[in-house]
Write a structure and sequence with these properties.
Layout: E1 3-9, E2 13-20, E3 25-33, E4 41-49, E5 57-65, H1 73-87, E6 96-103, E7 114-115, H2 118-126, H3 135-148, E8 154-158, H4 168-171, H5 177-182, H6 192-206, E9 214-220, E10 224-230, E11 233-237, H7 258-266, H8 272-281, H9 284-289, H10 294-302, H11 306-330, E12 335-339, H12 340-345, H13 347-353, H14 366-370, E13 377-378, E14 387-390, H15 395-406
């Protein structure tokens, strides 16, 4: 059995998944939270195969703990090893052949999965200026993992890499070129690992060549983005230099007039830090309706709550605007896919997002859309000119595939 360990490390968290690459399923995974705080939290799950041999994990045994302080990522690695040793699967029996690391920002330097050495590690740390909330945590996890698993290759998989195919017209901001170049200001895009996985799974499901398809992929979770994929290549995406640009999200504003920032500084006398906090953590659905979860927003809409209704309308308005713009950029569309928490589970969001595209032959089948189901599925009507799919994303598996390919 060949297994890959996938690490997604944040500033105060460590998420891990051990993936059996023969069946492409996780056999064990966990999350260590509140690293460096007074009381850390640990969850470890062992995924066991059903007795009938079904390839998908059928039985989940979880253990939870929050008894002691975990001071740093090195200690978190030790806790992870202890969880595998105590609860399984035992790494002595399933030693990883590679460790794949999720890294949010690769700047313009990294356009493919990359074997990590000391120089690459320094480069990832240098890019923290573009992702101060994400890359430092990734670097801490990489360093701890390289010390813990020193005899296997470590591979960085970048959220931005898939979008390195954006043409200059799409990634260039219309500001003074010298300033943009000096400070590395351009659109980088994010959620690339998910957009790549979903667009490839859609082509496979439809049994059509990826290179022949024009696709829209809506990754709708707490963070949200949409990407236009032409022949398997990202040609336009909604997130920009940071994950703040684009769609309305759980706590992020998405698109906003840049002068609003200047206005808040001049008139409200907010500091840069306060404006950053406002736009990234206190805006979006939370800012409009006081709630982040789309299920709560939809409940509010059904109850006739004004704030929830406005939040939902703004959310949908932005989705429709991007759908229309990206179809125009692609010159048509063959497939529209929805993924991530909201995209996979909120039937009303899917229906409303595409409701105005009937003129283009986009038609959702109401029963298919509303039917509870798991796995990839078609929700377009038989007479729709465009295939509409729900495609569950699996970023951990995509990272594992890319890391395994370099092992």
């Amino acid at each position: 059995m060949s297994v890959v360990l996938v690490i997604n490390s944040g500033s105060s968290s460590l998420k891990y998944s051990l993936i059996d690459m023969d069946r492409e399923v996780p056999v064990g995974e966990g999350l260590i939270e509140r690293i460096g705080q007074d009381s850390s939290e640990v969850t470890h799950t062992v995924r066991r195969t059903a007795d009938d041999g079904e390839p998908t994990p059928a039985v989940l045994d979880s253990t939870h703990g929050s008894s002691r302080r975990i001071s740093d990522h090195d200690e978190a690695m030790s806790v992870m090893l202890a969880q595998f040793e105590e609860h399984g699967p035992h790494l002595s029996e399933m030693p990883p052949v590679a460790v794949g690391h999720r890294v949010v920002h690769g700047g313009a330097r990294f356009f493919a999965p990359t074997l990590i050495d000391d120089l690459i590690e320094i480069n990832i740390e240098d890019l923290s200026v573009l992702a101060p909330l994400h890359n430092p945590g990734a670097v801490a996890g990489i360093r701890a993992a390289r010390r813990t698993f020193s005899d296997v290759p470590h591979v960085a998989v970048f959220d931005t890499a898939f979008h390195q195919t954006l043409p200059p017209a799409a990634h260039t901001y219309a500001i003074e070129r010298r300033v943009a170049k000096r400070h590395r200001i351009r659109r980088y895009g994010f959620h690339g690992t998910s957009h790549k996985y979903v667009s490839e799974q859609a082509a496979k499901f439809l049994d059509r060549p990826l290179t022949e398809l024009k696709q829209l992929v809506f990754h709708l979770g707490n963070g949200a983005s949409v990407t236009a994929v032409d022949g398997g290549r990202s040609v336009e995406t909604s997130m920009g230099m940071t994950p703040l640009e684009g769609l309305v999200m759980g706590t992020r504003s998405g698109d906003i007039d840049p002068a609003v920032v200047l206005h808040l500084s001049r008139v409200a006398q907010l500091t840069t830090k306060e404006i950053d906090e406002l736009l990234n953590k206190k805006s979006g659905l939370l800012g409009l309706a006081g709630r982040v979860d789309m299920r709560d927003i939809l409940s509010g809409v059904e109850a006739g709550e004004e704030a929830a209704t406005l939040a939902f309308d703004v959310y949908i308005h932005r989705l429709r605007a991007y759908a229309g713009a990206y179809i125009a950029q692609l010159g048509g569309v063959d497939v529209i896919s929805f993924t991530a928490g909201v995209g996979e589970n909120a039937a009303r969001v899917r229906a409303e997002a595409l409701a105005t595209l009937g003129f283009f032959g986009v038609r959702i089948d109401a029963d298919r859309n509303a039917a509870p189901a798991s796995g990839i599925r078609r929700i377009s009507s038989d007479d729709s000119a465009v295939e509409i799919l729900v495609v569950p994303t699996d970023e951990e598996l995509e990272i594992a595939r890319q890391a395994y390919g370099l092992a």
